[in-house]
Amino acid sequence: MHLRGLSARSTRGRVWAVGVTAGVMAAGLLAAPAAQARPDPGALPTTMSIKSPPGGSTVKVLVFYGSAAAGDESPVVNAGIEAIERIGRSGPAGQRFRIEATDDASVFTNATRLGRYNAVVFLTGGGDVLDPDQEAGLEAYMEAGGGFVGIHDAARAEPYSDWFTGLIGARPAANSPTAVQRATVEVGDRRHPATKDLPVQWKRLDQWPNWVKNPSGEVHTVARVRESTYKPGAGAGGWDHPVSWCRDYDGGRSFYTGMGGTAASYDETDFRAHLRGALLWTTRLVQADCKATITGNYKAERLTKPNQPGRNDQIGEPHGLVTAPDGRVLYIGRGGADASRPVVTDWSDPDVGKGKGQIHVYDPKSGEVTLAGELTVFGNKGGGDELVKVEEGLLGIELDPRFEQNGWVYLHYTPHSQLDRDKQTAERRVSRFTLDLATNKLDLGSEKVLLKWPVQVHSCCHAGGGMAWDSKGNLYIATGDNNSSGFSGGYSGNNPQPSYQGVSFADARRTAGNTHNLNGKILRIHPEPDGTYTIPDGNLFTGKETAEGGGKTRGEIYVMGVRNPARISVDKKTDVLYAGWVGPDATDPSPTWGPAKYDTFAVITKAGNRGWPYCMGDKQPYRDRNLPDPSKPLGWYDCDHPKNESPNNDGLVDLPPVTGNNIWYSPQGGGPDYPRDAAGVPSYQKDQATYSLPWLKGGGQAAMDGPVYRFDQALASAVKWPAYWDGKWFVGDFYDADQPRNAVLMDPATQGDGGLPVHAESLKKIVPVGNDGIKNLMDWKFGPDGALYVLDYGRGFFTSDSKSALWRVTYTGGGPTPAADQLARGAQ
Fold first, then answer.
1. Which tens digits make up the pLDDT trace of 664-721?
2. Is residue 491 part of a domain?
3. Alpha carbons within 13 A on the beta-carbon side of 772
């Protein structure tokens, strides 16, 4: 079928109508107010009602293909009209519609006729296709609750209209590439009918416009195009390149896709499915959420006040939070105090490093904070050089799965009472306490010590601290490698030489790489009611392994080879463990020693070895070093067959193979890798690096793992985050500059083996950054109300200050649209 193009100003008004029996629209939307004043306002309708009475006409879609350009009609128009007609007549009963196609723009000044259409599709080559009266008619149509779908060059229509720019959402940049190129589309919305059945990574040929202004945050983006998979040209937008989006606009519903620039697009099953979903929503045949990623639909509020002078009555040095089933939020302070309290760093003083680890309780019903209790910890020793600062203290908190009945609280901390000042060692422990649920007071005398182990405190750093439960009642405990970040040039922490009274403090092979040491691990135990624990099946070791020379293991170890995992989380729907940890300090990669600092996030589906201090990233090895001269490099570590040959090792020599990690980032960028030689060793030449995760970058960096959100349809909450976020994993960084604060989608088929995220989107406009926002992200979890609770560390280190705070981020956008009573009724 050939459709001859007609001028937008033509009076010949030919209409091509195709149709099948379709649904009957719900009776009557509210009449809309008049459009904005235009020339000759008397010629315009003052109100418009989009309605079909019961038993009346079918659901109808108007396809407008008028163009400002003269000449024959584009093959894209023919293909698009035919595809939309097929969509309308081939859907299931109740989701069919009739279409009429025209290039006569006078339809937009006929209120009676225009009001019969559930949606209008702009399949136009662009340009100034509507005169002021016609645009005013389209505006009145949208104000009356109409639906709009714009396809590809529709974004070039009405170039002088701010209102139409808002309707579309963005304008193509002048330097957009015109070539048809194969690219990968990341389909981030797994709920919207336009995208829910599409591949998460959708590879297809099309034209890919660049945008004058990125609309993210002002529209709800359902799909992005991955710029690394094609040539975006000089107008490239970066990793966040929206290609399809929607929004509730001016009383109606608007959907736009930048795809559909080729006639062949309309023969694709997936692209027609994309258009079908857009049309189902805009015609009101189905509901959908087009509000979930619009920044203005979220509210971030600070819940705690600044501390009173000389007191930590509201908050300590923020270090972790947990939410109770009744909505209370319990959060901990590590041990640092405000500037009015002296910091004792003299080892001859019995109070060296003594601090108070606070547990606070925020009650959402009253908005009040209670100081539940204080533990005397080793954890207030300043922020000076390598041999002065300390990261011990009160490090982690979790609530018993039956907390509402028993009030049990688990704390991960370093008691000052167990400090050995002569050997400069301490004891780390996980203990259970009881909270009085009526008074929010912690019974410090109720302590039952579940697990304890030694740590060196002569030299900083890396205590870890996070804890989490799975659905089977197993408790995961994250521990840092208890190792100095110096003495190795910022590369692998494997210098065997420095020690204090025989205890190494610069060789992470003593800890993270040691099968018989609980530091640098994620432990998994099953706490019992009597205050003991058992070891569940499936951990990395049984605790009974031995080898020549007396090597041995600890059965509590679930994951080894992690550096400083401050935060971990478990998705109880899947029991998958998520973790993040901080890397070493080297700014640049070294062909001699190995990769630069990689902060890391990992999806952990089974027990394993995550590599530190032998390998990082996607199994990128470090260089070995050993006595007698640790400054001289030895061979590269073998990530598939690592060996612990350190003189400080008292565990097995032969270690489990390293599992690659899912997310890693350096000061140069996210996911760096290099050409590899025949042995698999990267070149580590900075100018040869490729970056597979362009949405994040380091610098000063400290990875903070977050939760996987799970939407609860049955939860009656006005503040819960919408279903769009369901199944997305939140990853962030302590700092707020170029570092991540993102929600990512993983591929369940590959995530356990180091598979990369398939999609990511920024949360920085929703979880606000900056000095007046949440600048130093310390912990974040969803509460039982579906809101996100966040700890902001403050603006200093080893202390609390006026910016230290508990925040809540709530969703205020409301439910899916259109409202249930405004849905069209489909015919059977």
1. 999 999 999 999 999 999 999 999 999 999 999 888 899 999 999 999 999 999 999 9
2. no
3. 0
